[in-house]
Design a protein that fits this description.
By secondary structure, the protein is an alpha/beta fold. It has one domain: Alpha-Beta Barrel (TIM Barrel). Helix content is about 45%, strand content about 10%. The chain is built from 18 helices and ten strands. The strands form two sheets. An eight-stranded parallel β-sheet has the order 8-7-6-5-2-1-10-9. Helix 5 links the parallel strand 5 and strand 6. Helix 5 crosses helix 10 and helix 16 crosses helix 17. The chain is globular. The two termini are about 25 Å apart.
Length: about 450
């Protein structure tokens, strides 16, 4: 098994001591480095503070090259006022050192700092998508030791909550008026799609026990009727996948057409179980992306964890439908996602969901699903997150992390991406280094993971 390491919002940590850190990571089996957003002094959300203080304002790590933007007929974004030449030089040296030592180097969210774009919504606007492509090319051409970039947005919302469903992360997010033209250009009715979303919202408020117990276990046809047999809802889900695929394809085509060297593009998505609701057509994305990074996050609570998402769906469905039991709500979850957690019959059981059987069956199946869309297993590099508060969720032990990695490996996975080194604990590093390289021993190493609490 191979491991990549994510350095997120804390480039300065790596830059301060990159020789020692890279030595330790290489010995522990790290073969890839994903770093970014590639800006200096980026604020880091802390669990005890609103932000970790920065000595200097956030600033870009390079000056834009106007020639790149001229290839697209665009104006370049402005150069940062503070050049931070010493930090820039150290970043280039650190990344070159990593590359020279055999690490595959990628920049996370290389489109950051794009613009100026067009007047339309970023998901559809041709000028804005071109500005994404230009910014990626500009950054990667100025950092030639990096092989490519990894996207972690955009996506459609898939979360649910008893009370807060107007957020962009919600499955019930109201498409804004600025999307109307883009929706119409794709052949869809903007008002009909928003209305279907509203009917789905109402449907989930009016589930009765008879319908759930009749239809929830009835496969596609049962689920179709459980959720109202609504053709516009089907159209909405299809639109989500087509719009997101078209967006990523357009940006990738722009990069391929105008870059002076090959630039690999990886696309971060949710796990296969949630991907369609988020708009990720993994099979279609695999046709043009160089690799995919689905989220293999399994923790409870927080955000983006598999068990936590199931927990929120059960909580919300029961809150909206007082006659339903937890078991009924779990049947609704199964109808929506095809997901059944071994041994889980209630919300209380979710506290014990992460059993060896869970990793073997659920995560084994999730791994096989994403591997099915590629011709080379190395084109799948799932994110994993564990530690003391993964994505603000419940702690995930080193043992659970090891069970997750072993189950995915048994299903055919060959590499994964750890998120992120700022929160890496000694226990996690011990487990991952044992699986991927030489087991780390604190008493014999000059390196110790930061073990922080930063999102």
């Amino acid at each position: 098994m191979k491991m990549w390491m994510n350095v997120m919002r804390d480039m300065e940590y790596l830059l301060a001591d990159y020789d020692r850190i890279l030595d330790a990571w290489g010995e522990g089996g790290v073969t890839g480095l994903v770093i970014g957003p590639p800006e200096f002094n980026t604020p880091k959300v802390d669990f005890d503070k609103e932000y970790v203080p920065c000595e200097e304002p956030v600033t870009e790590s390079f000056d834009p090259n106007p020639e790149v933007y001229r290839r697209f007929g665009l104006e370049p974004p402005p150069s940062p006022e503070d050049k931070l030449p010493e930090k820039r030089a150290r970043l280039r040296k650190a990344l070159q050192t990593a590359s020279d030592r055999g690490f595959d180097v990628y920049l996370w969210q290389s489109q950051v700092g794009w613009g100026p774009g067009g007047d339309g919504h970023y998901l559809f606007d041709e000028k804005t998508m071109a500005s994404y492509s230009a910014r990626i090319i500009d950054r990667l051409e100025q950092f030639p030791m990096a092989k490519g970039t990894v996207f972690d947005s955009p996506e459609w919302g898939y979360e649910i909550h008893p009370h807060y469903n107007d957020l962009v992360t919600s499955v019930f997010y109201q498409m804004p008026e600025e999307m109307r033209a883009g929706v119409a250009a794709m052949g869809y009715d903007f008002d009909a799609l928003n209305a279907a979303k509203d009917r789905f919202f109402e449907n989930l408020h009016n589930l009765d026990r008879r319908r759930v117990r009749l239809h929830a276990s009835g496969g596609f046809l049962g689920g179709l009727h459980l959720f109202g047999a609504d053709p516009d809802l089907t159209a909405l889900l299809r639109f989500r996948m087509e719009s997101l695929t078209a967006h990523y394809r357009r940006v990738k085509e722009g990069v391929d057409a105008e870059a002076t060297r090959p630039i690999e593009v990886g696309i971060g998505s949710r796990a296969a179980v949630f991907a369609p609701l988020c708009g990720f057509d993994l099979a279609a994305l695999a046709e043009f992306a160089d690799f995919l990074c689905p989220k293999f996050y399994v923790f409870n609570r927080g955000f983006d964890g598999l068990v936590g998402t199931v927990n929120r769906y059960v909580e919300t469905i029961c809150d909206w439908n007082s006659e339903l039991t937890d078991k009924d709500a779990l049947e609704v979850v199964r109808a929506l996602f095809g997901l059944e957690l071994p041994g889980v019959q209630s919300r209380g059981d979710l506290e014990y969901a992460l059993t060896p059987e869970f990793y073997e069956t659920v995560m084994g199946q999730e791994t096989r699903r994403v591997l099915a869309v590629v011709d080379n297993p190395e084109k799948i590099v799932p994110w994993v997150d564990a530690g003391r508060a993964p994505h603000a969720g419940d702690p995930l032990s080193p043992g659970d992390l090891g069970r997750l990695i072993h189950a995915a490996g048994e299903a055919g996975l060959q590499r994964f991406l750890y998120h992120h080194q700022g929160n890496l604990t000694p226990g996690e590093w011990s487990v991952m280094s044992d699986i991927c390289g030489k087991r780390w021993r604190r008493e014999k190493s000059e390196y110790c993971p930061p073990d922080d609490f930063i999102l």
